[in-house]
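Lecture 7 notes. Example A: sequence first, then its C-alpha cells.
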Amino acid sequence: MKIAVNEQPQQFYLALKKWTPAVGHEIKVGQYRFSAIPVKNIIRVSEVTTGAKLYDIPVNFAIETLTATKGFNLFFLSNW
C-alpha cells in the first residue's frame, strides 16, 4: 500500500468541542486520508473527513530534533 505525504501545509478541521481549524500535512494511505497536526508536545493524527483523532504521537527531544526541518518531518511522517 502506497503512503504519500503532501509537502504543502493544509488547513484541516479537528472534531473537538466544536470544529476547530488547524494546519498540518495530509497523509494518504491507499484510499484513506489523514492529517498530521502538531499540537503542543504531540503530533495528532486524525481522519480527514470526520476530524476524529486516531492517535497522538508523543514528541520527545529525539523526535523534535528529527522533525525540525521540513525534509526530515516529511520523512518521519512517511515512515512512522
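Example B, a different protein, same format:
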Amino acid sequence: MKIISTILAGVCLLSLTACIKMDPKTWIGGGGGYLKDKQGRLVGDCKGNNISMELSTSDADTFWQNNDLPKGIFDFVCKDGKAYLPSKVTDCQGSLISKQSGGVEGFRSKYNLNNGNMRFTCKSGTVTPVPLSSLQ
C-alpha cells in the first residue's frame, strides 16, 4: 500500500511540473507541445509565433486551415504575412518561385532568406526579407 501511495504521489508531482510554462514561447508537457520540423526545431507562423499543438482545435489546425495548407505541413513560405506551399508561392512579379532557375532554394539564396521558413514581403515589387526579430 505504501508503494502505491508513493507511486501516486510521484505521478501527481510529475503531472504538475509538466504543465509549468518555463518561457513564454516554450511549453513543456501537455498533449503535444509545439509544431516542430524534422530536425526538432520549433516552427513559427508568419508572425513569428510558435505554433501550438495543445488544444483540441490547435493553433496548428487553425493555421493550416486559414492558409489552405495540408494538415501536418511545416515546410511553408511566408509572403506578405500569408503562408504558402513552396511549390505554390510566387515572387513579387507573380511568377512561381519553384519554376525559376534554382527553384525555391535558389530564390532563398538569391535574396538571403535564411530565416527559418522563408519570410518576405513585396514592398514596391521588390523582395524584402522579414527578419524574425521584426515579427514580435
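Note on Example B: Strands lie at 21-23, 26-27, 77-79, 82-84, 119-123, 126-129. The first strand starts at residue 21 and ends at 23.
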